[in-house]
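Table S7 (text form). Paired inputs.
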Amino acid sequence: MFIDKLALLLTIIGALNWGGIGLFGFDTVAFLFGGQLALLSRIIYTLVGLAGLWCITLFFRTDEEHGHAPHTA
């Protein structure tokens, strides 16, 4: 599903950004888009947060909903 892949991509971008903050004290989103309080940065932070919330739903889906064959024992 397209939205799942988009949400995963945004979540990965957010994770890499947080990794950069934690390891190097460098916020890539803020650097690229005009600071943490710049409108574009805040939009990106919001989209990453919403993507993270969407990814929570992946924990509660069945294999059939993902398009995978069911597991057999």
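Next pair, protein 2 of 2.
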Amino acid sequence: MHVTRIIADLPVADVDAAKSFYTDYLGLATQEFHLGWVARYTSPDTGAVVQLVTRDATAPEDPVVSVLTEDVDGAYAEAQERGYEIVHPLTQEAWGVRRFFVRAPDGTVMNVVGHRD
């Protein structure tokens, strides 16, 4: 798999309540998106990024990181070939991403995601 970006998925009880710490204190000023249950904030100066997640909208478990790739279908096939546990199947989500969740051998759940062009 060719990884283009990795984003920390931080668990929070309430995205809106947590927002000011990450934007006001850490300076992650740009809100890339906000779906209510997940929001992504980025530093306009450095590109540092974090996602705040209350509970994933469609998956049975919450990921620790989101791994972006240009070939999510190929990454899915490779994960299956290697015998990794698929936690959430390859899905075209309503908000425009194609993704699946895979469990690393150490137990870490990762959201492997591709964006539509």
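Strands lie at 3-11, 30-34, 38-42, 49-53, 65-69, 85-92, 97-103, 109-115.
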